[in-house]
Amino acid sequence: MIPSAAHQAQARRELIAEQTTRLFDFQQDDGHIVFELEADATIPSEYVLLLRFLGEKNPEEEEGIKRYLLNDQKEDGSWPLFRGGAGDLSATVKAYWALKICGVDPETPEMIRARDWVLARGGAARANVFTRYALALFGHIPWRGTPAIPVEVMSLPKWFPFHISKIAYWSRTVMIPLLVLYAKKARAEDCSTQLTELFVTPPEQETKWQVNPSGTKVGSLFLALDKVLHAVEPRVPEKLREAPLREAERFVLEHLNGEDGLGAIYPAMANAVMMLKVLGYSPDSEAMKTARRSIDLLKVWRGDQLYLQPCVSPVWDTGLSAHALLEAGETQDPRLEKMLDWLADKQILEHRGDWISRRPHVRPGGWAFQYENPDYPDVDDTAVVAMAMHRQGDPKYKENIDRACEWIAGMQSSSGGWGAFEPENEHFYLNSIPFADHGALLDPPTVDVTARCVGCLSQVDKDLYAKEIALGVEYLKRHQEEDGSWFGRWGSNYIYGTWSVLVCLESADVDLSEPWVRKAASWLKGQQRADGGFGEGLESYEAAGRGGEQPSTASQTAWAMMGLMAAGEIASDEVAKAAEWLRNAPREEETPRWEEDLYTGTGFPKVFYLKYHGYAAFFPLWATARYDRMASANHPAQGWGM
């Protein structure tokens, strides 16, 4: 028997009230909300390697990581980049290596399966660049097995084809301490665990290490240059190397970012710790203690299992939670005000970060993703927070909102789009260097970030920012896929990208009846599963149309539902079915989350994925509350920029 509309509405409102209470209950004493952020096996594995690089052991932590890794291993012996995904060679090499260090017998069935899987794919020599740097640090492969990255690049002028300011912030903070490790040919304190069994050809006999990541003629030129650099680099006098080494050291120390860490991301933090050790900093030095503490703060115990987060997401989680609670009608709740006050204190109004290299005259005004990361605020977080403050309506946030919008407008690229952290970061030829096999060296404009910026500027002051909005909308139209969808750079994938665009259009005064908007809505409708929900596997990053076997998820159903409502489909059967799916989907008993084990977040497409534990909390609540509001309105409208 199908419940009546009145019964469904009542049940929906009870759900909204219950999940609102649970989300508020998740709030920290100072007002903010933060959920776990989980990646794959590589980061806990790398932490085990870091301990041995430093000559340390921590039996309790290593036992916890061992349990975490074994729990995440696939039946075929490999480790995936995301739950349910295919095995990944580099992740599997690092997990096997870490387990062996942690004392797991190589002749156990789990290790035999992993080893056979690696060897069947060419062995550890075929692993990615960052894995090979790790292998070189422990003496498992010669340094010629890694791309040449001479520390002298620190002294290159800005006009040179390669300059450290021309790559993305995450690449910059990871690469600069690595330059020092490479220059010093650093060696771990404890290299006792051998990995010869993971190589098809003995590493000293291996002749083919580097690859052309882009497959272009430019990539072939860079490969040839890499050979030259490997030949020349050992002959560079140490005296000539001193100045760039000091420049790299200075950069890391100036950007160390207290206990939030270099770049506030694990790979950069770990490289910073190793660099400090190689440069002779004692364990008791303030720099080393601070750098170590930043890593400690990423640890998460789950029962008897331990993993490390790639970073933390308090500003993102708090900002998006605020939107969900505002949609649920909690505009004047003092707990919401406490959230926004916490966010207001986190705005970066004085510090001029690395983004000034291309926008020296723009005033700061952004928010970072993490607790503290003043050198690297991002426009995505900034737009989300500014829109929440503006919607709440308290005039005390006016300066926060105005400064945020001023900064967002100043960060627009000439293409009309926005990158996440810097404008004009589009030196695409650099994606052809051997170091860039991960395909994410740069931070070019993306659809999802651009949509958030368009939505924010449109919501706050569409007249003042009319030019920026128009350029942004044109960027979005140019980057629509043939089938009507949009690619999602920071969330999975086409559902995320399409939701991001559709929810910004109403505030930007786009006519929702235009063919390109209708095409997007039609595409979204076509993605609905038979159960009423929506799901898209991360395999869609490998090829459009893949990932169709993934079951419906709460976060992706919420995105699709809000995207359709934004496109004027509030009365459609698809939206009603999605709302019912969310109402009936299982939820966790003691958290604000719907049950969702799958990953729906993206770090770097094809390379690094994320499970935002908060996505299954605030997005389904947000979508359900929006549906309840719009379904009962005489003239339903989204009303806001996202």
Mean pLDDT: 96
Could you tell me the number of beta strands? 5
Helix tally equals 22
Largest sheet: 3 strands, antiparallel
Order of neighbouring strands in the sheet with most strands: 1-5-4
Q: Give me the secondary-structure category.
A: mainly alpha
Q: Given the C-alpha coordinates, what overall shape results?
A: globular
Helix content: 40-55%
> For the terminal residues, how far apart are their CA atoms?
35 Å
Element order, helices and strands?
HEHHHHHHHHHHEEHHHHHHHHHHEEH
User: Which regions contain 5 or more consecutive residues with pLDDT less than 50?
Assistant: none
Strand content: under 5%
Radius of gyration: 25 Å
**What is the subunit arrangement here?**
single chain
What features would you highlight for this structure?
single chain, about 650 residues, mainly alpha, 3-stranded antiparallel sheet, two-stranded antiparallel sheet, 22 helices, about 5% strand, globular
Explain this structure.
One of its GO terms (molecular function) is squalene-hopene cyclase activity. Its EC number is 5.4.99.17. Residues 17-301 form the Squalene cyclase N-terminal domain. InterPro entries: Hopene-cyclase, SQ_cyclase_C, SQ_cyclase_N, Squalene_cyclase, Terpenoid_cyclase/PrenylTrfase. The chain contains 22 helices and five strands. The protein is globular, with a radius of gyration of 25 Å. The longest helix is centred in the N-terminal third of the chain and has 21 residues, at 5-25. The strands form two sheets. A three-stranded antiparallel sheet has the order 1-5-4, with no helix packed on it. A two-stranded antiparallel sheet has the order 2-3. It has 642 residues and is mostly helical.
